[in-house]
Design goal:
The structure is a homodimer. By secondary structure, chain A is α/β, with parallel strands linked by helices. Helix content of chain A is 39%, strand content 23%.
């Protein structure tokens, strides 16, 4: 800003003083406004936004200290230079504490007033520049933050978009599944795949890539494609797990592996064959006796770097589904959820929820209830790991 | 902080005043230190970090205003209350502008001094609290920024890790390839795949997922897996593109598509068969006549949502590779690079670089030269799109 183009507001109840200062400062090419008391002065500041205010202390209506308070209260950006003929140290200190930039004693030396104005303008310029730079820095940082948030949000949407948005319709059965990631992105995954054109056999799978966040998420996205090919021409869960294991080995990082459990439902026979890759969290609820049994057999994780000949073996178990029976597969984010005291939710409580709700609940409501129960258990403690559940219910 | 436990430093050259204030303030349970001039006072501030300094203006060695300057210069966190018997308005204003918190006139009223100290302590407490909150906010934001940067960096590493880290060894040929993403992650992709166990036929591919950043990156990561399966049992580029197209349709978002060019080199016959999915950027340099010809035939992008029967047709062309011949496939980030005047790099300049360098350069140095030439062309303008190049050179 050109200093000479600066606007000066002179606030004084004595017309002589206003006129003398106005002439002098206009001669020096400042734009000069005047006011005869604090109320008028505040009104002019609001409209004209002067760069500097030369402010008399003793005035009628609203005095200088009152006007200083008005400037502070209204957060009006200007520099105030106090002028007074009735100076005491107390009032000078009061004015400075009230936000004045400088203090001039009347009668005012014209040289002096211009020197003080120049100094105030320079100080204001520096303060504005400083504020501008601070704001630019903040905006740049906010922008970066927004862009990164957007990218991570997209990764989240992309990952969630790979999992089923709705459940398949199966005569005599209900199925529901959901993945609740702890971060924007994570390593949990579930899916349903028809194993034949005639839709007589449906595979459902819950998997969990080791690690968290983006590292795990990128592997789940690739896993989604690998799964699609590895189910082709296969119907036994053990064969699918074996295919996935072989396809992942050496391709997902030496320290990364995938645990998972696959159930393959033969809709006509009402039999689910289950195989597990280090993913024991699968329960079968039998309505006739009200019991909940763990049904996942043992097996090593998929994609691990193992000596030749080790792993790749996935025994199967069978579960016969009768009316009211449930099959629930879930990820370790559920039993490992912790409350404020550090206690775990644990598998036993999952079994309890299944037993307690199996009678009345649909697959969907049982799943919702389980996830809500974990949330309530955790209380204020944030969710630290992804949670995934698939529930299959035999209706008739 | 308990106000009563606050430390007060009294700086005055008159011993009587120091003693009176010390007694009075100690009686009120303040911890009181004394100094008899500004130099001593500054030394005590540095060591004892008093909460409040009661500072005489007129002193030998270093006076009050000098000591105020020392406090400001040393960025010493304390509240200074000026005490003076020789007050003028100018000096009071000077002291306040110099950073003093308040101003007391001697002889000092003991009630007054305690009131002013309490006010200064409260003000200091608020200022500290404010600074602490500002800093906590800044740290939280920095932490978030760091975590997000880390996640995006991981996505970058994951994506880059899917592309070849080194080139295959082929008798009689050299091959070099590189992807330079514009952002942390992007939609460009390249790879080499042996089409048979005996390694007699090598496919090399450059692909570009539409869109940018994370959205495109997640599709390239999935594309990497799909490619692996779709090359199986196939040797003709047109069949591979057809397989990829069918596998991607309806699975990568309605508005997303993948362009790409595949060359399949028969090492023994020295013939490259080339097919392209809307990716015309492939040049064949023939050493015998020094000419550069575009060799990518036309074809629609892969994975597009098209009416039934439309697309999926990828004609092939053949290029015979003789000693010194080059095949260069690259992505549109190269011809579409812009300089400060908005001019494009353009395919013609790629052809020019190939022609100019083909004689002396290895596949690797030609690729490096092309990428460097684009960088130099762009100058200060940032890279806006990913750049990928694969160069195959026939050696003998």
């Amino acid at each position: 800003m050109d200093e000479k183009a600066a606007t000066i507001l002179v606030v004084d109840d004595e017309e002589d003083i206003r006129e003398v200062l106005k002439d002098r400062l206009e001669f020096s090419s400042y734009r000069v406004l005047t006011a005869s008391n604090g109320v008028e002065g505040l009104a002019r500041i609001r409209v004209e936004r002067p760069d500097v205010v030369l402010l008399d202390l003793q005035m009628p209506v609203l005095d200088g200290l009152g006007m200083l308070q008005g400037i502070a209260a209204g957060q009006l950006e200007t520099c105030v230079i106090i002028m007074t003929a009735h100076g005491t140290i107390q009032r000078a200190v009061q004015a400075m504490k009230g936000g004045a930039t400088d203090f001039l004693l009347k009668p005012i030396d014209p040289e002096d007033v211009e020197r003080v104005i120049r100094r105030a303008l320079e100080q204001a310029r520096l303060r504005r520049e400083n504020l501008r730079l601070q704001q630019a820095l903040r905006e740049a940082q906010d922008q970066l933050l927004l862009e990164m948030q957007r990218e991570l949000r997209i990764a989240h949407e992309m990952q969630m978009g790979l999992m089923p948005q709705e459940s398949p319709t199966i005569a005599g059965f209900e199925i529901a599944g959901m993945c609740v990631p702890a971060n924007e992105v994570g390593g949990d995954y579930f899916n349903y795949v028809w194993l034949d054109e005639g839709r007589t056999r449906l595979a459902f799978l819950v998997a969990d890539v080791s690690g968290k966040g983006m590292a795990a998420a990128t592997v789940t996205m690739r896993f989604n494609e690998v799964l699609r090919y590895e189910v082709q021409g296969r119907s036994a869960p053990q064969d699918i797990l074996r295919g996935l294991d072989a396809a992942l080995r050496g391709r997902i990082g030496e320290l990364t592996f995938v645990t998972g459990c696959i159930g393959a439902l033969d809709v006509a026979k009402r039999v689910v064959r289950i195989a597990s890759a280090a993913h024991p969290m699968a329960y079968h609820y039998t309505a006739k006796d009200g019991l909940v049994r763990q049904v996942a057999p043992s097996g090593l994780p998929m994609g691990m770097t193992l000596p030749p000949g080790v792993g790749g073996d996935y025994p199967e178990v069978e579960a016969l589904m009768e009316a009211g029976d449930l099959l629930v597969i879930y990820s370790d984010g559920i039993p490992e959820a912790q409350d404020a005291k550090g206690a775990f939710y644990e598998d036993a409580r999952v079994a309890e929820v299944i037993r307690g709700r199996a009678g009345q609940a649909s697959a969907q409501t049982l799943m919702d209830h389980l996830l809500r129960d974990v949330d309530e258990f955790r209380g204020e403690i944030p969710q630290l790991d992804d949670m995934t559940v698939v529930v299959v219910k035999c209706l008739e």
